[in-house]
Amino acid sequence: KYLKLFIRRPEDDMPSACWERDFDAPVTAIWETLGDTARYNEAAGLPRQKITEQPRPDGSTRYLAETRMGWITLKWDDIPCNWVAGKWFRHERQFLTGPLTSMTATLHLEPTDAGCHGRYEIEAEPRGLLGHLLLKTGFFPSTGKMFNRLASDAELFANRKRETPFEYQPPVMADKSKERLRDVVQTIKDGPFHHGLADKLARHITDSQEVDLWSVRPVALARKWGVHPRKVIELCFASVRAGLLHMRWDLLCPRCQVAKATSPSMDRLPSGAHCPSCNIDYTRDFTNNIELVFYPDSAIREVLFEEYCLFGPGGTPHIKAQLTVSSGTGREEAIALAPGSYRARTLEPGLEFDFDIEEGDGIAIELAEDDVAVDVIPGGGKLIIYNHFPVDRVFVLEEQVWRRDILTADRAITYQAFRDLFSRDILRPGDHIDIGNIVIMFTDLQGSTALYDRVGDPAAFALVREHFSLLGSSVRDHDGSIVKTIGDAIMGAFTEPADALRCAIDIHDSFAAYNSENPDKDPLVLKIGLHAGRCISVTLNDQLDYYGSAANMAARLQGKSEGWDIVLSKEIARDVAVREILSQLNPVEEEAEMKGFSKPVPFLRITPEDLNARRGN
Q1: Starting at the edge strand that comes first in sequence, how are the strands of the sheet with 259-263 ordered?
Q2: How far apart (Å, rounded) are the C-alpha atoms in residues 365 and 342?
């Protein structure tokens, strides 16, 4: 399974070594591990790096890296890595100090009948006597030994014979840290948001590689653990309050999706940032480029936020190809792309182009200073690029799925657990944030005034309190939050329209069940209105609140409800997932004059009859 070859290129006397290996696992599984160069370098015991970005006059960026290995300080130019996902990568360093002038690592993977074949090559150019001695003695043998060990780990992980990608020895915990960990885990378990996952999260924090802990993403963890995202998100919120984790709000560059500014709390989040790589100034957008991530408390596991590898496929799995194309030239690569939405751009500042492809399609792309032209080649299976820039450019092809693991700020603050635990993590007085799209729900208890008069204040208040309890359970179970109560009404907020509609249906179901189980009490009848749109979020009465046309419209729609029905706007009904739910019902189209709106407003009404029929009544 393992063959070692030494090669010397006679044309430039560049020493190199190549290791080849057959894997009993598919290409995709081996690529996931060996293509993650930051994880590989950490597992190999290589030191962390400090990176400095320096913009160049031609629009590109110089990436200067520095580290120490023993008594030697190494400084180098980190050349942007080239790769085609699932096939190969090539990573080059041009050293400014140390025993080497340059070093290049290349990995190629090819499918075979039994799995895949890997070829790993290291090229190194010596500097001075020390460099020549290094390359003629232990450098290549130790590199080969390390590759063989980590490649074996990768194969075991791909075949599910080990839980982690590489054999890794986490830092030894001090007794005081172990005691603190036990205490905080018990605190989490004593609360309502542990979901039986507190011990699992604790092991993740203590045993995982450091690259997994710079930014703990609860949505990605939920997918890995096979549980509902809300459970892990609530677990992380509870872990912050208990002292296991900290929160960090990252302001992502909208072009390269890398955080260029961070804040430990919302009230200190800057209104914008500058990305030196893309050479753009950008503003915060709570819907699109503010991400909430978590990291361990240093008293339990100290994490140093430095790189193990700046460029590498594993750190950006949504990037399917990153290729340097010389000025005035083109290149062609075989590539297999899944159907979906993609973006073509350059690593350097420039234009970008979004497009969709089908199964097996190829792409031809021409890059210019004022244009990006993309032609989809049906069934082509190739990536063809031509660079019209007067300078070399690094082309990037990325699948637009990076948001699937992102807990955006607008989504985070709609969780009831966030509002329950972090009511003080709010905006500065006078500050506000624009929310590109939020779903607002208004409910009102029908006939509550008459109820107080009929049964008396104590009995009526007890019923109203039970009504709020039913509402709170349904809203939380559908990833929403109760923003505020207004008398016997609530204002709720959701990120996804389908979650809000399912919640509204569930509310009526739970109220119907409650009335059926309590025939001696006055029946509870609810009116519900839903709308989605833009709004602003501000701090009022020490809580995050929503204002604007979206909130106003939801309130007006609730006013058109007649009880036991759901009134929703056409904006809600346009959502794909909502349309699927509505296809099982028979909503009635209506329109009405509404206060504050100049024209009659069209809306849909899901009738009590339809909701009863759905329940089988």
Answers
A1: 259-263, 245-252, 290-296
A2: 12
